[in-house]
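Troubleshooting entry. Yesterday's outputs looked truncated, so today I'm pasting the complete records for two proteins to confirm everything comes through intact. If either block looks cut off, that's the bug. Protein one:
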Amino acid sequence: MNRLVFTALTLGLLGLQAQPYPPQQPYPQQAYPQGTPAMLAPQQLDQLVARVALYPDPLLAQVLTASTFYNQIPDAAGWANQHSNLNGQQLAQAIQEDNLPWDPSVVSLLPFASTLNMMASDMNWTQALGNAVLAQRNDVMDAVQRQRQIASSNGFLQTNAYERVIAEPGYIQVLPVNDLYIYPPIYDPYIVFGRPRPGFFVGGAIRFGPAVTIGTFLPFGWRRPEFDWQRHNIIIDQRPWGRTWVNRQEYAHPYVERGAPVAGPRVERHEVRPVPPPPARGREGRDRRDERH
């Protein structure tokens, strides 16, 4: 039985709970010379963005910008895991008090621990995505739209209780039903970007994690992150995000509001949870805890 049929049976017939992020084959390591990264072809970009293309626009905007600071992602994911007992105002206060050293785009993802863990678990992919965003952002955004068109045409990407899917001439927006709450989607690219078999229940292919309340995190880059798809702009805190491969060393995004950092180095002011060691991975990078026999 091939993987597509097995996954379809698992999600559609057996009704088992989907894992937060279906195991992906690790992205191959790329060689990056001193100059601009090699330009990726459309097919390569389609594969690169597949695992995040269906994220709601505000979360996707944060993921794309944060990926350009890929070297900060593992530490941020560790912090988010250690503070997973906090949420809402308590988490916002911890972010403020701990004087975290990361770029605001990375800090914006701290409420989304599962997203950070996905990025940290495949750093080759995260680095490749970040470099593509810096070197060919227009092409990356076009790839997202191609993938959304496929998922929409196959019936997988639809308006539901969690998000609105708005088809405009030339592009598709995915927006939260309520701007104050974001539900991270859970899906397997092998399913949603493939043509469904007859009788397959397309409505069960995309599921959603717990809601993250955004209002508490406005000082951390959450003032309406969005896209201007027609002009290929990423809008962060009401301003176009302008970091590129050329200006990556000196660019500082002009955030509307940013909490004043606590004086001194990063410190820990809260009880933290121990972070378990990373799971052993079997063939094709699968997490063995997710294997079912």
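Protein two, checking that the full record survives here as well:
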Amino acid sequence: MITEPAPHSSGTSSRWSVLAILLLVLFIGVRLPNLGSPLLGRHDFRQTQTMLTAYWFAQDGVTLA
């Protein structure tokens, strides 16, 4: 017997939206106090290299040619 799938209710969609917003606020709240921190730590070379790559991508754009 083949049955049709039940349509998604709008309540489920709004719950996912609320969850996504709450997670975004949580992640921003955790990360925001450390945004001004210097690039120091156990992996300072990798962090600095990643920062430089992001800087040059922002300055010159990304070309994959």
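Both blocks look complete. Sanity check on protein two: Residues 10-35 form one domain.
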